[in-house]
């Protein structure tokens, strides 16, 4: 994050600037797609998005330590400590915590519903002891806090041209769509952490259980039944993307290139999964670098066009204002 971005956002306190920089580092290290897309936002909005994603990454790092690196009791204590910092920070609008400080400032600036952060922490706590989900409805409960509320948190930062309550369900769906794609991409890695995010009932309808997934992971092979189950989840994921996409035109025009870029890149992971015939147990699917660059370039073109239209609109408004003053 550059000084120009922090200045544009009106963030001048040295301690607070340091907290925002820490969030940016977390987003850059863990969320390459999100980080790339955030670069397409107007400078004054970037720090807030980094704060929201940086906090989410901080919490995710606590619960996703591989077994043996941090005992479950230690991770639970760290998550409770983070929740305490979060609650106090949101109440006081400041914090000594290196990441919560930026989050509390962003939440206050954009009047983000504190309940979204409470729901997020509840889902993070589930990751400490829930190892699978019997139905998609059970998984949806988890994803509300871990993904849907992220879309709702970011929505005030992006801005809308439609009533926010109309855009909100689509923003929530976008968060869920991204997370479902992560679940499909990371099946093997999640198994290594002792978790399965693919609903048991949908897997069972194809003859798949945890043991079969574990066999595929250990052998580096992907059983046909697993491939069929993954295809089914990809189809479900695309339905969620379709609902999410309808919300993009509801966003502030200068924010749409950012969201469209993240949307295209994340949905592209599904393309890569299907191109491999859903053989995903031993190697995660990624969008090729050349394609990522092409999508980013198209995003930059959209940014330039949107900002040009925005500047022209402001120019016309100033001209009209001067005309009224002289009449």
> What would the average pLDDT be, to the nearest integer?
88
Structural class: mainly alpha
Distance between the termini: 46 Å
- Cα-based radius of gyration, to the nearest Å: 21 Å
- Biggest beta sheet attributes: none
Assembly state here?
A: single chain
How many distinct helices? 15
What does the overall shape look like?
A: globular
* Portion in helices: over 70%
Note the run of SSEs as H and E.
HHHHHHHHHHHHHHH
Give the number of DSSP strands.
0
Strand content: under 5%
> Any low-confidence stretches, pLDDT <50, length ≥5?
323-327
What is the strand and helix layout of this fold?
Blueprint: H1 3-8, H2 14-30, H3 32-38, H4 46-63, H5 72-92, H6 100-110, H7 114-126, H8 136-158, H9 164-185, H10 187-192, H11 200-204, H12 210-219, H13 224-245, H14 256-275, H15 289-326
């Amino acid at each position: 994050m550059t000084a120009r971005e922090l200045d544009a956002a009106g963030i001048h306190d040295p301690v607070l600037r340091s907290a925002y920089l820490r969030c940016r580092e977390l987003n850059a290290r863990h969320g390459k797609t999100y980080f790339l897309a955030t670069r397409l936002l107007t400078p004054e909005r970037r720090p807030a998005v980094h704060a929201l994603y940086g906090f989410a990454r901080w919490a995710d790092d606590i619960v996703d330590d591989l077994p043996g690196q941090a005992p479950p009791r230690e991770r639970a204590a760290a998550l409770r400590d983070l929740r305490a910092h979060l609650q106090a920070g949101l109440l006081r609008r400041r914090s000594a915590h290196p990441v919560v400080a930026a989050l509390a400032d962003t939440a206050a600036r954009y009047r983000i519903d504190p309940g979204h952060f409470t729901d997020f922490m509840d889902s993070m706590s589930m990751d400490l002891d829930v190892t699978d989900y019997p139905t998609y409805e059970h998984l949806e409960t988890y994803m509300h806090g871990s993904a849907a509320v992220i879309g709702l948190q970011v929505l005030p930062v992006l801005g809308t041209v439609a009533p926010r309550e109309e855009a909100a369900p689509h923003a929530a769906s976008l968060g869920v769509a991204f997370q479902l794609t992560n679940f499909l991409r990371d099946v093997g890695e999640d198994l290594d952490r002792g978790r399965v995010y693919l609903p048991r009932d949908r897997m069972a309808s194809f003859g798949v259980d945890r043991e079969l997934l574990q066999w595929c992971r250990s052998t580096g092979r992907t059983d046909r039944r697993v491939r069929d189950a993954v295809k089914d989840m990809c189809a479900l994921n695309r339905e969620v993307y379709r609902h999410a996409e309808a919300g993009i035109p509801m966003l502030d025009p200068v924010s749409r290139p950012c969201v469209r870029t993240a949307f295209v890149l994340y949905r592209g992971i599904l393309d890569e999964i299907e191109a491999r015939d859903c053989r995903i147990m031993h190697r995660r699917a990624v969008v090729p670098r050349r394609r990522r660059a092409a999508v980013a370039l198209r995003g930059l073109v959209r940014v330039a066009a949107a900002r040009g239209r925005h500047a022209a609109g402001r120019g016309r408004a100033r001209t009209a204002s001067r005309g009224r003053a002289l009449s």
